[in-house]
Write a structure and sequence with these properties.
single chain, YjgF/YER057c/UK114, 6-stranded mixed sheet, globular, Putative endoribonuclease L-PSP, 133 residues, 60s Ribosomal Protein L30, Chain: A
Length: 133
């Protein structure tokens, strides 16, 4: 059995059929659902701005981590999904990732170009795995 994580600071993901994260045993891994550019009220942040959307995705990841007393340094894996990826999209998402990591050495990240995400307004989605102390 695993614990489901749904911080009050984020939108109600359960109504959409998923939790923001789950803790698995043994090993105490925190599996973070892919985060999109929604705020707490399910309002899109960033519009057509890929960098702004990526920053909101990462802010949502940080909120889930913070809810569990963790930070980016606890992440051991990211996956970044970018709609209709082209090399030009590396810079805006990469800049957001650089801000997110700050002084922390980045965890491995797999970058995937996808045709679409759950809703047409989503340009990027980022998921992660963290280790609980």
């Amino acid at each position: 059995m695993s614990d489901r994580i749904n911080p009050d600071t984020l939108y109600n993901s359960v109504q959409w059929g998923f939790s923001h994260a789950a803790v698995s045993e043994p090993g105490r891994l925190l599996h973070l659902a892919g985060q999109v550019a929604w705020d707490k009220d399910c309002q899109l942040v960033g519009g057509d701005d890929l960098n702004a959307q990526a920053r909101q995705c990462l802010a949502n990841l940080k909120a889930v981590l913070a809810d569990q007393g963790l930070g980016p340094q606890h992440l051991i894996r990211l996956r970044t999904y970018v709609v209709n990826h082209t090399p030009e999209k590396l810079e805006p998402v990469g800049m957001a990732l650089g801000e997110f990591w700050g002084e922390v050495t980045p965890a491995p990240n797999t970058w995937l170009g996808v045709q679409s995400l759950a809703l047409p307004e989503f340009l990027v989605e980022i998921e992660g795995t963290a280790v609980l102390p």
